[in-house]
């Protein structure tokens, strides 16, 4: 009986020490991780809006409101708008918005990226902040050959060529290509809900 009690106390002590150690590690790494995530996001903003002098959080943004905008559309279940900032010039004038989207339909899981949209509704481009697709296939979404297709003015809904659209899918990575394309559509839809767009 004494051996069982001793073993139980030993296991309890080990669990307690391991828990405390994990807590310390979390506290030590929490700050650097937050800084790295912030820098990644800021770099994405600058990539899709190189002419902007600063970026300001959209005052009334909420993921709940964004979800309501997408409700009833083809993007409601597959895409989430996770952020939106205003892109401002040096005088504080609005150049457009950077809409951050998470597509839940990537081959390797969620894909999060930013879409820069000018006040006239034209798209500056996209920049990835989190993507874990297959190396040599879906990860080619980060290549200019694919990304640059999302710059310009678009009439109607974007789609990959296999679905009758104009976006050339990455060879062997149609799932990734569709996920990103639909995410851009969701971002444009959210932008239009702000009262912008060429069709206003």
Percent range for β-strand residues: 15-25%
Helix content: 25-40%
Over all CA atoms, what is the radius of gyration? 22 Å
Largest sheet: 5 strands, antiparallel
Question: What is the overall silhouette?
Answer: globular
Mean pLDDT: 90
Task: Please tally the β strands and state the result.
Answer: 5
Which regions contain 5 or more consecutive residues with pLDDT less than 50?
Answer: none
What is the ordering of alpha helices and beta strands? HEHEEEEHH
Number of distinct helices = 4
Summarize the structure.
This protein has 200 residues and is α+β, with helices and mostly antiparallel strands. Helices cover 40% and strands 22% of the residues.
Word description of this protein:
- The protein is α+β, with helices and mostly antiparallel strands and 200 residues long.
- The chain is 40% helix and 22% strand.
- It contains four helices and five strands.
- Strand 3 and strand 4 form a beta hairpin.
- The longest helix has 47 residues.
- The protein starts with a helix and ends in a 7-residue tail after the last helix.
- The mean pLDDT is 90.
């Amino acid at each position: 009986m004494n051996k069982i009690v001793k073993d139980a106390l030993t296991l309890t002590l080990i669990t307690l020490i391991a828990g405390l150690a994990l807590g310390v590690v979390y506290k030590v790494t929490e700050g650097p991780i937050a800084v790295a995530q912030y820098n990644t996001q800021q770099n994405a903003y600058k990539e899709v809006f190189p002419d902007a002098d600063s970026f300001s959080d959209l005052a009334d943004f909420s993921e709940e409101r964004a979800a309501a905008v997408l409700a009833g559309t083809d993007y409601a279940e597959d895409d989430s708008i996770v952020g939106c900032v205003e892109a401002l010039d040096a005088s504080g004038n609005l150049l457009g918005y950077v809409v951050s989207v998470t597509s839940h339909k990537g081959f390797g899981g969620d894909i999060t990226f930013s879409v820069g949209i000018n006040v006239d509704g034209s798209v500056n481009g996209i920049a990835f902040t989190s993507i874990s697709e297959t190396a040599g296939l879906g990860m080619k979404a980060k290549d200019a050959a694919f990304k640059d297709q999302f710059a310009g003015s678009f009439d109607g809904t974007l789609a990959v060529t296999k679905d009758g659209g104009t976006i050339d899918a990455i060879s062997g990575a149609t799932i990734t290509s569709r996920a990103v394309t639909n995410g851009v559509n969701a971002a444009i839809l959210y932008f239009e809900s702000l009262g912008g767009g060429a069709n206003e």
